[in-house]
Structures are given as C-alpha cells and as structure tokens.
Amino acid sequence: MVTFVTAINCMDGRVQIPIIYWMKKEYKVGYVDMITEPGPIKILSENTNATLINSIKQRVKLSVTQHKSNIIAIIGHHDCTGNPVDKDTQIAQLRDSVKLIESWNLPATIISLWVDKDWIVHKI
Ligand SMILES: [Zn+2]
After folding, report:
1. Residue 117 and which of 18, 32, 78, 87 are 20 to 30 A apart at CA?
2. Nearest 5°: phi and psi at 12?
C-alpha cells in the first residue's frame, strides 16, 4: 500500500532526511510529501504574505486530497537562515502555525516538530 504524509519543512538541506526518516518511522508510511520554504514557521505565524501562504496551502491540499495524507507536520529547526530566532520563539511560531493550518479545515492531524543542533527531531 502506498501511503503518504505531508511535511511543511524548511528548504534547508540539513533537515530533509531527518524529517523524512522520522515521519516514515513514526507513521509507518512509504513517502513524505515535502513542501519547502525558507523558515516556513515564520511565514505561517506572521500570516502576512497571503500569496505565499496560499501557495503553501494549495500544495498541502494536493497532498491531502490526492495522496490521502492524514498527517501534516510543520517544522522548525536550529540555525535556520530564513528564521534566525531562538528556540522559544520558534516554539511559539510553531504553535501559531498549527492554529493557521487548522483553520484550513483539512481532514488531517496537524503536528509540530523541532529539529535540534544534532539534527534530532522532537515532537513539540
Ligand atoms: Zn531553515
């Protein structure tokens, strides 16, 4: 059975494999649809760039409707060039990002993940 989950991840090359590995293992799925932007939790939590947010939303929607993903992860990470703020600020951004994604009313569970300096994935 081909199964997918969805990740709204940073474009940073260092966080792709850790997130794919963690999600495949955690949810026992074959594939992770990856939607990337620099610092996506900054974009979603600020909620000011409607064009960009709509682009992210359309891609997430495609993953959920066409690939039947029922998990959407939003990701923040240590040493993010697109979002150079401390961990506590990123945790708050993750929370606000989850709220925004929830407002899209997609039939999926939304989770937030944080990747530390050793590229270990933590569920927030
Ligand atoms: Zn980043």
Report:
1. 32
2. -55, 120
Write down the residue that tokens 């999926």 correspond to.
108
CA of 117 to the centre of ligand 1 (A): 12
Q: Give distance in angstroms: CA of 15 to centre of ligand 1.
A: 8
Give the pLDDT means over successive 10-residue stretches in the chain (124 positions).
Answer: 91 98 97 98 98 98 97 98 97 98 98 98 97
Name the DSSP class of 103: T
Distance 11 CA to ligand 1 centre (A): 6
pTM: 0.96
**pLDDT value of residue 1:** 61
Closest CA to 74 of 103, 106, 46, 99: 99
Q: Does residue 74 sit in helix, strand or coil?
A: strand
Handedness of CA 56, 58, 62, 65 (dihedral sign): positive
CA quadruple 85, 91, 96, 99: dihedral positive or negative?
positive
